[in-house]
Design brief:
globular
């Protein structure tokens, strides 16, 4: 069976390791962390109903990067995936949901978007 590979678009292993308080020179979990990072990014793109290019265009500081709030939200998801490798309780999910939504909702296409050109979903 072919080995799976995962690619992150805007998260870095350094950022993820900082979030999780893992030493930078510890490479023992790099594949798992990269998988979680790629999953968080893919979830975020789907949740926001945006492309990466659309998100970059919404960054007032540097339109070659996604906004920092998006990076922070993805790091929250990675942290949740890492800390809760099994089922997540409903109570824990609400805590993740509120923090995540607070960071990303203004970028979501549709009803909650801050972009006046977006149509309601």
């Amino acid at each position: 069976m072919a080995e799976r590979t995962y690619t992150m678009r805007w998260l870095t292993l350094d950022d993820i390791k900082d979030q999780l308080r893992i030493e930078q020179d510890d490479t023992s979990q790099d594949k798992l962390l990269t998988r979680y990072g790629a999953t968080a990014e893919n979830f975020t793109l789907g949740y926001l109903q945006r492309t990466e290019d659309e998100l970059k265009a919404m960054n007032d500081r540097d339109q070659t990067q996604v906004p920092e709030d998006i990076v922070s939200a993805c790091l929250l998801l990675v942290d949740a995936y890492y800390q809760h490798r099994g089922p997540i309780s409903q109570q824990n999910m609400y805590l993740i949901d509120y923090g995540y939504d607070a960071l990303v909702m203004k970028f979501r296409k549709g009803t909650y978007s801050s972009d006046p050109n977006d149509n309601d979903v």
